[in-house]
Design a protein that fits this description.
Order of helices and strands of chain B: EEEEEEEEEEE
Largest sheet of chain A: 6 strands, mixed
Distance between the termini of chain B: 36 Å
Order of helices and strands of chain A: EEEEEEEEEEEE
Radius of gyration of chain A: 14 Å
Largest interface: A-B, 25 and 30 residues
Radius of gyration of chain B: 14 Å
Number of strands of chain A: 12
Strand content of chain A: over 45%
Helix content of chain A: under 10%
Number of strands of chain B: 11
Oligomer: heterodimer
Helix content of chain B: under 10%
Chain lengths: ~120, ~120
Amino acid sequence: AQKITQTQPGMFVQEKEAVTLDCTYDTSDPSYGLFWYKQPSSGEMIFLIYQGSYDQQNATEGRYSLNFQKARKSANLVISASQLGDSAMYFCAMREGPTGANSKLTFGKGITLSVRP
Amino acid sequence: NAGVTQTPKFQVLKTGQSMTLQCAQDMNHEYMSWYRQDPGMGLRLIHYSVGAGITDQGEVPNGYNVSRSTTEDFPLRLLSAAPSQTSVYFCASSYSAWESLFTDTQYFGPGTRLTVL
């Protein structure tokens, strides 16, 4: 079974609107971390947001928030007030195990987001 | 701080040739890793290191060697390149458990685009 699943086809959103990018994960480890990265057409991987499995609140970083539903094993990324510069590929990733013990990441296949003016 | 640097940015090899992809970081990170990115596959872990002198295999280690003689450098060696190794290679680094951060967020280099003919 895939550990990280991103099944949405290419996503389109109108500028200034909000968009949700879906991510579901599979792990039996009670301690894990979830990450979202952005990859623009230039190719670099840019860290956006992190959610720990024991965190009580959903993570937020500026216009990015993570809708963490532990029982459903989902960690959806919400981008508010989309900008043209948000057009990119977005990857969800997971670290299994406690912080520091194992930093290996498993990535999903990514979702392409296009922001329309 | 230069962050994570990778050289070269582009490389074309013939089947059977060898080469080394360089990766360096100036953030005193203990954890470093190499990923490859193929279309439709997301990023997959090749090798990783939790500190100088310590390396281990990731998900797709065959055909690659690594060493970690210093904290700063983590080169990836292709001993006999094959067309199946055509990919984009990313190096990443993160803090260890000895730091006071609890996310293990990995920071990526700009990538090396490798083509094997």
